[in-house]
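so i finally got all the pieces together for this one. its two components total, 932 residues if u count the protein bits. some of the lines might not be protein, just check the labels. i wanna see the whole assembly predicted at once instead of chain by chain like last time, that was a mess tbh
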Amino acid sequence: MPQPRHPGSNWLVSLAQIEQPVVASPSRARGITRRQALTTAVVTGVGVGVVRLLSGSMQQIASPRTGTTTDWISPLGSESARVMQLLRRTSFGYTQAQLDASLSDGFNKTVDRLIETKPMEPPVLAVANTPGGRFPINQLQQWWIDQMLTTPTPFAERMTLFWHGHFTSDYRKAADDTFMYWQNLTWRNMGMTDLRSMLMQVTTDPAMLRYLDLATSTGQSPNENYSRELMELFTMGAGNYTEDDVREGAKALAGWTIPQPDTYATVVVDKANNVTRKLPVYSGQKAGVLNARRAYKGSVTYLGKTGPLDTQGVIDRILAQPATATFIANKVVQHFVAARPSMAFVKNLGDTFRRSKYDVKTLMHAVFTSPEFAANQSYRSLVKSPTEFMVHAARALGVTSISKLIAGSGSGMGQSVFDPPDVNGWPNNESWISSNTVVERVNFATSAMAQAKGTLPPATDAVHKHLDGVLSPQTAKLFNQAADDRARWFITLASPEFQLK
Amino acid sequence: MSREVGINQLKRRDFLKAGLVFGAGASGLAAGYAAVPDAFARAVYAAKKEGMTNDNILVMIQLAGGNDGLRTLVPLADPALHDLRPKLAGPMVSQALPLNSQYGLNHNLGGIKGLWDKGKVAIVQGVGYPNPTFSHFESIRIWETGDPTRRQVDGWLGRTLATNYDSNGHPLTGCACGATDAPGALRDLQATLTVIQNQKTFGFTGGTEVEAAVGALYKGTPGIYGALFDTAIATATETMATLRTSATTYQPMADYTDKVQLVYSSKNQLAAALQLAAELIVTGTGVKLLHVTLGGFDTHYTELNRHDDLMGYLDSAVSAFYQDLAAHNMADKVLIATWSEFGRRPKENASGGTDHGAAAPLLLIGDPVKGGLYGDEPSLTSLDNTGNLKFGVDFRSVYQEILSGHLGADATKILGASFDQIPFLKAPVAV
């Protein structure tokens, strides 16, 4: 299986010398000394060099806790490092300008700005007007990735991705890409509102009505799919309800249907035989419609109470369960703070969330300003999802033209947007790491470098601005051995450090 | 380079044992592995521990989403089926391929029916476990870990790898084909395994310079994910070297096609995944435990076409796989087994589909199999209090026969208990 050299990657040759054995020739001697010094410097916490950030502050890297190389040396004692971690976790990385603004604002003001700034709307996706709602999915994927790459409000995109993985639907079963487009618009607009509104919205979302079959459920013969996942995956978690609750909930939720189109367009589907079909056309985003004749007429016993119950009633019963706030808080923490959070931390956040009447802004503010978020143990404790990794790489390189590459590269790393693996959305953290996915991440770095034409920002700056100057001895060694800046950029993007946030 | 990596990872492995890393991750050793040089040779797999030697191979096919057992093995003569499924029962009974007067296979399982006629298919009926959960994810975890009490975190195949094969440090012993992440069944902190989505593109696009640089980059990586990253790259690099050899010698002797018209497209290319499995098997890479997945079985809606199409896809992929193995004279070593987290509700719903169920049949296919029906047929008239089929065979009975009878492993140790025997193997290995 010969590996073809990637076109336009002559810079890769400069990597070739890296693995050459170090010989004790006079011409090499200085290099060895320098490398040894650098390696030692990193391990003992000085970093690759003392870093001067643009704001003029000196980056302080904390002393190593143990003097071993088994954990990263956390720089989170410094506010600039905390700001950079905040941006890595909330913004798909950052451009130079965004970093400068945040460093000048400081941590708390940046948190407030992230949470309070109104999301910038993406441009209208014209192809979403296609009658029948079917168009190549990569156009929808690229449209969203373009927005991630260029938006001045990346936190809104990060939250949209979070909710897309939580209240997930996939384009295959939804069978209408226009509905998937609407769902994406919904999470951008509602991603920082309140869980009660969001649950009503997602229950009647056309893509979701199709994806979990509520659109075909009737009170007389209910389909349990949505009722179960609403409790198991969207709100409460397994073990907090009974099978009877699933069945009774299915009755109470039945009756929703896909919204009626505004008009139909006659489209030629087979030119040779002049076959035409009438396909639905919507003038704008619509929610599902309740058909009272399909709904359940009687009373149900649901989550401990008996009586007539409509969809809002189902949601309010779910919100009355303490498990709901804890479940959502736990998921948020695993995406934004720590892969294995303490139960006490999660419970605290859950209590805050519930007391705020499930206000997402209150929850996210509590998450970002928690001591756990800034703790040394939190440093590099999360793995970037493939989308976060790729968009961050592009933003760090200052390249905004590679949304096609990004849209096409995600599946080999385990994440293709609008196409989650199953109703549980995407897994996180260690699940992103396998022999296949890590190779694909490296291959993306190779392709991104090939497509990043022109002058790049200095790679040494990138190490400080995106990796806090905290490198493993191996990464530091390879970085310093690389013959040119493009090779140094490749080392930076392909490094384990860059996969973490 | 691989030796050095191995030494590093040995240290990291001790570090893992100290509990500093998550329990669910995959990691392992790459030390001491040498590629089997002579392709087409019938590989001898030296299992190092406790004197076990056995060159059998297992391929597990996951039918993800909950496969409808009643549409897979169709009860032909039970009038209750028509009461429970007024819309679905008619065609599924009339078109079924009869095995006897009572049962028929789904009409799209023609290739598997051909293998049945040759005595190469065992069907175990009514497989499940006590107090079934109807959650996909909980039930998948139960099947993957082999533990209905949900305390075990490692996969049953991962534990098999760690207990029996890990010491030879062979990264291709366990392999998930056609996937991007490791299935839970193969996961174990101490197990070595490889994940390959597509062998044709599995490699560094930047060529040998990148391969060398990345090999050096992912060494001694600090932090809680360090061992996972380093192992992933070391495993991938060694697997690429193996695949470079196997790709030059493997000639498929069957027609694998993924151009299957499904009601909606599948994320998993089953035929391609099984062709990769065949390549790894027939070129003597030393692979032992393989896992592939076909998704789309969660047929809550318009099950009629959807499930039949999936059956047809399964049938064509498995038939090609068997034919390929047989043509390479390896069929006697390979046991193919299907699994799914649950069956489906006997009663159909308003959407022309079925909701989550419980017990269902498993298919065991291959030359090692003693063909026939095993287990008692679940009753359609005496359902449990959730309206589902009662199980008669604990799924761990099937695992036990696979582990001890086919792989020659200590099933009791791996499963933590002993289960009733289901004698579906022609010549079980003496343990």
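Confidence is low (pLDDT under 50) at residues 1-52 of chain B.
Residues 63-415 of chain B form a domain with the Alkaline Phosphatase, subunit A fold (CATH 3.40.720).
anyway lmk what u think
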